[in-house]
Write a structure and sequence with these properties.
Blueprint: H1 2-10, H2 14-24, E1 28-33, E2 36-41, H3 43-50, H4 53-57, E3 64-69, H5 77-89, E4 95-100, H6 114-123, H7 135-147
Parallel strand pairs: 3-4
Antiparallel strand pairs: 1-2
């Protein structure tokens, strides 16, 4: 699987064919190069191009939490700011942004060394790292405030404390 993904990313021959296939409305693209045959399903990509995120976000009218890892190598942090702008432009002012320092695209903790971050992401080794310590409490705090009756601002949960449960249950916030 890794060899196939690596071959797709390394092959410059795929991108011109991909653009032509999308323009023609094709559902897939195939290219032969010195490494062999590269095939790619375009269904998801075609949907994303036809339905840009800003157009999708305009339908959100409820409290919205945007969480972004500051060390995300897949999506630049600036995209989260564009998300906020799209939500505001659509009339949703009940939006929160949380950017977690030392977190990647999947909210895993990141190493100090930038080269190590890249190696881990390309090899998928980053998925063996634990989630960022604040990630569960960021989500739980938002959900408590938005979903529980009289949720109001939740008390901050110290790093390492258990987060979960319903009000009054073991490990709950109440």
């Amino acid at each position: 699987l890794w060899r196939k993904a690596r071959r797709e990313y390394e092959s410059a021959a795929l991108w011109p064919a991909l653009a032509a296939a999308l323009e023609a409305g094709d559902r897939s693209v195939a290219v032969n190069d010195e490494r062999g045959r590269i095939e790619h399903d375009l269904t998801d990509l075609a949907f994303d191009i036809a339905n840009p995120p800003a157009e999708q976000f305009r339908h959100l009218r409820c409290p919205t939490l945007v969480v972004h890892g500051a060390d995300d190598l897949n999506v630049p942090v600036e995209d989260s700011l564009e998300t906020i702008r799209a939500l505001w432009d659509a009339g949703n002012r009940d939006v929160e942004l949380r950017i977690l320092a030392r977190a990647d695209h999947s909210m895993q903790q990141t190493p100090d060394d930038v080269d190590e971050r890249v190696r881990e992401r390309l090899s998928m080794a980053s998925f063996r790292r634990p989630f960022h310590a604040l990630y569960p409490s960021v989500l739980t705090d938002f959900l408590v405030r938005c979903l529980l009756p009289g949720g109001g601002p939740a008390a901050p949960v110290p790093v390492g404390e258990r987060v979960g449960g319903l009000p009054g249950s073991p490990g709950s916030l109440a």
